[in-house]
Amino acid sequence: MSQVFHDIEKKIISSLKDNPKQTPELLEKSTKLSPDQIRRGIEWLKLKELAIVDESKTSIISLGKNGIESFQKGLPERRLLNLLKDGPRKLSELQKELGYIFGPAIGLARKNNWVQTSSEEISLQNLPSELPGEKTLKQIGANQIPLNEIDKNDLLGLLKRPDFIIEDVITTKEITLTDSAKLLEISNSSGAIDVEAKVPQVFVARTHPLKDTIDEIREIFVTLGFSEIIGNMTQSSFWNFDALFTPQDHPARELQDTFYLDGVSAKKIANSEQIKKVSESHKKNWRYHWDINEARKMVLRTHTTCVTIKHLAENKPDEARVFSLGRVFRNEKVSYKHLVEFNQIEGVVVGKDATLRNLMGIQREFYKRIGITKIKFWPTFFPYTEPSLQTMVYNERLGKWIELFGMGIFRPEVTKPLGISKSVLAWGGGIERIAMLKYELDDVREFYNNNLNWLRSATKCQ
Amino acid sequence: MPVVELSYSSLQKLVGKVTKKQISDSLPFLGLDVESEDKDLVRIEYSPNRPDYSTDFGIALGLQGLLGIKTGAIKLNIKKSNKYRISVKPSVSKIRPFVTGIVAKNGKIDDKIIKQLMVMQEDLHFGIGRKRKKSSIGIHDLDKITFPLVYTTTNRNHKFVPLNSDTEMSISEILNTVYVGKEYGSILGSSSQVPLILDANQKTVSFPPIINANITTVTTKTKNLFVEVTGIHKEDAEDMLSVIATILQSAGFTLENVQISGSKNSSPKFEPKKISINPDLANQTLGLDLSTSKIISSLKKSRLNAVSKGKNILCTIPAYRFDIFGPMDLVEEIALGYGIQNLEPTFSPSQTIGRINPVSNKLKSLDQIMIGLGYLEALNSSLTSKRVLYDMTGRNPSKILSVLDSKSQEHTILRNSILPGLLENLSRNIHESYPQKLFETGSVFSLDDPISEKINFSGISAHKDANFTEIKSILQSALKIGFGTDLETKTSSDSLFEEGRCATVIVNNAPLGVIGEINSKVIENYKIQSKVVGFEISLSDFLFKSS
User: Fold this and answer.
1) Coil, helix or strand at residue B323
2) A387 → chain B, closest CA residue
3) Where in the numbering of this chain does the Aminoacyl-transfer RNA synthetases class-II family profile domain appear (chain A) (predicted)?
4) CATH number at residue A248
5) Are residues B305 and B412 in the same domain?
6) CATH code for position B114
7) Of the candidates A223, A298, A357, which has its C-beta nearest B346's C-beta?
8) In which domain, by residue range, is A351 found?
9) B234 touches chain A (CB under 8 A)
10) Contacts of A421 in chain B (CB under 8 A)
11) Is it the case that residue A222 has pLDDT exceeding 50?
């Protein structure tokens, strides 16, 4: 049976044929492979029973801090003896010159009768050519030496001294070829590659993560029986505000909240009946001078409700489920939680199912489908719905309740003037908020930064 | 939405037997959002249609109802009195025709209540007062004023010591130098005459809707209050006064009436509104089956009065609840009294069949094609800046569509093209690995009776070997696979593209957009270290053809 070998395997086998017993470190040098490649190559050959790995443990010793100092400058007692070569010296002088090694040096020298001391002076008595331990210090030097190569008697004294000798055990591996491997003919041509090696990252082309959330929401509403309507982002104030019972002097209509298009007014905003009825409703309920020129001013829609109400006013359905989805605008300072332009979903139900409890039920079903199950409803206020509610959803990651969709039933002051006779449930909210929960973002601006690093790495399948 | 800071302990005192937790659990069900809590203090956001919730007295009334401690409507007890009169001169009729007022006596006036009254006054001014234009309030120390008063006009040289000042100032000086004068002076227009309230000794009490006189300043030494509201509609002025009267009564003051005469004015009546509601409307709207008595008790919990009258329920609404327009508002009051937390959501499967809009469908298919071609989708704002659209790209600005008073420099004009935004995206990613290929579809805007919105489609490719052939192949394939059409490219020039490497995209003999290698100067402006090619075409013709 012919065997296919990886280039790494081939290099290791060839090297071992030349030099039959090698450590991994030696193999690195002889094959010029990386430590990681050698490790894997040996592992493969072992599994194929082509290589034998002998592991042996060896006790080794090396010099500690004081050992190294003695290796470089001589043992403390040797340094003492050297100072006495030219005659006796005063104890106090020597103490100064030798410092902290003076104590151990004089102790040993006295004990071995190398020196003689009087009350003040010290003189040489005999000078051995080699002191105990000196042979071993020289032998070890800066290396690690197997314990079995050392003269145990000479070592003994050093072992007792602090920080002279470090003992350790190392494991060495030696690789040899098995007999069958020695017989292998290694050819240079093989199809094998390093399948375990690291490869470069490639980036997938994809839709924008926010778009994925928008599409998901769109599909949920379609499966709930809703049809999508679309409309312009630029709208007359009439449809954005007046038709929704927001009086012309209401603070929400001011420049500081709404984007008005500089010098752009619509000539035709609605049919004369619609204009007449809407303005009458305003005059009667809000008591102010309704000005058609104010209604003509073009704005960037502040909600998609203008698209919905226009659709309802044109079609006057007895029964309908529609939704619109798209960009809306608010004149806000951009921050981690506010954008000037963001996406909104808005849905309406017209007809016999139009009850507040059903409206709540649709919300609950929607949230369930995007994975939010902990929700509650609180009353709130919108100028064009009555009753009005808001949904609070619980976010586990942030550990708090977050406001999501607002909802309600269109006020009769909205529907009647436009000839809509049936009850209309309406709800809506920002999509970015949902997407932030999904992608665990704390800064909404991230969606429009088009930071390639994020676009390329945000988890797609959620 | 306005925010008010209250303390739990004072709410507990006002509401009666109630725990702090009961209060904090109930606040959201009155429609009040708890913004933040710090031990005893709680910051609450309330709806602008409920100015009575701007003080703890108003919130306490609501909580009492919701918790069933005290239900039914608050009745204003106003002592009839002849002592307090205001006569109105005809000269005000063209400027600020109406005045109304009330006297409140023997309440406890401390720093806390002064602060609450000021907050309530500001919220009323901003909301229903439409920044004092419709109606505005003055609260005075009653004992500093000698009745009867006269509501009249004066010229702009009239002098008095205004609030927070110790020197006399003329009306003109006040309007030109004092903050409130500068802020609200425009309400008075350019007329030489301005409204004024004078007392029996010819002392100035107030210069509505701008500022009170210093002499009537309310301090902790004040015992009795005089409140006046002036405005351009009698009903609005009385609505505003009724909120203040209700709150002052709840705060422990005894109310006495102010008689007003002359020039279409009359004394305030604070008359409750009567609206009748059919129980079926409530049940149908809410999806419930409540008995008439349950509906009545729910209305009472919302601090309204209600009695059964034939098939209907007759509801009495105190004057301060002017947010109630008709029966549908009562449905909401029933829902609140019943308790929103008691409404169980129901779900009835749809009888209708849902449908994605064909435009969305086609755009989604185009997304799939571009992804197949290796392009990453970018999303940019349609509200962008002159810098991105013109300065950086050298494009010729024509008929710019700007918005007024944008708070953000980067969002001042509507885009008429998508490609500059994609170039901007490349410039922010020069440290990321190449090739970088982006596409975007979205709305572009142009002036046209009044504005036309079209959907454009743009793609961009940046890497060291990017070239015309590459980008033309991409667009050609996208259009062929997406819409079954072929394209032609005819030599043209465009400042965004390199001279001689730019073409008009033509489909079915009609120009649709532009394609080419991006001008090296533009690339330099953006410090992009690579060649860039791109295209932008209008999609509207394809998308709307058969939809």
Assistant:
1) coil
2) B332
3) 321-437
4) 3.30.930.10
5) no
6) 3.50.40.10
7) A357
8) 209-457
9) no
10) none
11) yes
Of A205, A234, A260, the CB nearest to B451: A234
Residue B73 domain-assigned (yes or no): no
| Cα–Cα distance measured from residue A68 to residue A218, given in angstroms and rounded to the nearest whole number | 76
Q: What is the pTM of this model?
A: 0.80
Size of interface A-B (CB pairs under 8 A): 258
Contacting residues of A for B287, CB less than 8 Å apart: 355-358
A446/chain B closest Cα distance in angstroms:
11
**Are β-strands B451-463 and B531-538 bridged in parallel, bridged antiparallel, or unpaired?**
antiparallel
Cβ atoms A168, A144 nearer than 8 A: yes
**pLDDT above 70 coverage of chain B, percent:** 99
Cα distance between residue B32 and residue B271, in whole Å:
27
Complex ipTM value: 0.90
Residue B480, domain member (yes or no):
yes
In a domain, A143, yes or no: no
Q: Dihedral through CA A276, CA A279, CA A285, CA A287, nearest 10?
A: -130
For B390-439, write each residue's pLDDT tens digit. Answer: 999 989 888 899 999 999 999 999 999 999 999 999 999 999 999 999 99
User: What is the span of the domain harbouring residue B309?
Assistant: 275-315+325-340
CA dist., res. B132 & res. B140, Å (int):
17
Residue A312 within any structural domain of the chain: yes
CATH at residue B423: 3.30.930.10
Tokens of B166: 């110790």
Judged by a CB distance cut-off of 8 A, whether residue B430 touches chain A is no
Asked if residue B270 is part of any domain, the answer here is no
Looking at the structure of chain A, the number of domains it has is 1
For residues B20 and B151, state if they share a domain. Answer: no
pLDDT per residue over A311-358, tens digit each? 999 999 999 999 999 999 999 999 998 999 999 999 999 987 799 999
Contact B357 A287 (CB under 8 A): no
Q: Which of B54, B29, B28 is nearest to B243 (CA)?
A: B54
* Together in a domain, B310 and B362: no
Tokens representing A289 are 């001078």
For the CA atoms of chain A, what is the radius of gyration?
45
pLDDT digits (tens, 9 = 90+) for B233-269: 999 999 999 999 999 999 999 999 999 998 889 999 9
